[in-house]
């Protein structure tokens, strides 16, 4: 969402993947939405600049009936995509199951 956003940096080979870094970015929760999005954008831009990935993967969220949650998740996704696009890095969207399967090389796995 727009208050806390998780990230992971993974080095991926043909048959294996290794976690390089991960964490959570927490914007000031009582700040206006524009300030929270700017905070997330700046922090993601720093991470992307530090690790210089070949690509950025964004998780396609499962969204139920809560429209406010869906809007917040969409805003956070847009920030991640923009941070990557502004320095020419392609962005790909994956479902949570696709990401877990790729990382663990298993169909069903819970992190």
UniProtKB/TrEMBL annotation:
InterPro entries: RNaseH-like_sf, RNaseH_sf, X-over_junc_endoDNase_RuvC. It holds the Pfam family RuvC. GO terms for biological process: DNA recombination; DNA repair. The keyword Phosphoprotein does not apply. Keywords: Cytoplasm, DNA damage, DNA recombination, DNA repair, DNA-binding, Endonuclease, Hydrolase, Magnesium, Metal-binding, Nuclease. One of its GO terms (molecular function) is hydrolase activity. SUPFAM superfamilies: Ribonuclease H-like. Belongs to the RuvC family. This is Uncharacterized protein. It comes from marine sediment metagenome.
């Amino acid at each position: 969402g727009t208050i806390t956003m998780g990230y992971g940096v993974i080095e991926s080979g043909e048959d294996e993947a290794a976690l390089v870094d991960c964490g959570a970015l927490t914007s000031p929760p009582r700040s206006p939405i524009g300030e929270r999005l700017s905070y997330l954008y700046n922090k993601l831009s720093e991470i992307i600049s530090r690790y210089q990935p070949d690509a950025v993967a964004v998780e396609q969220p499962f969204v139920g009936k809560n429209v406010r949650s869906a809007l917040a998740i969409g805003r956070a996704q847009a920030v991640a995509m923009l941070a990557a696009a502004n320095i020419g890095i392609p962005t790909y969207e994956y479902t949570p199951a696709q990401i877990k399967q790729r990382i663990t090389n298993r169909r069903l796995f819970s992190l």
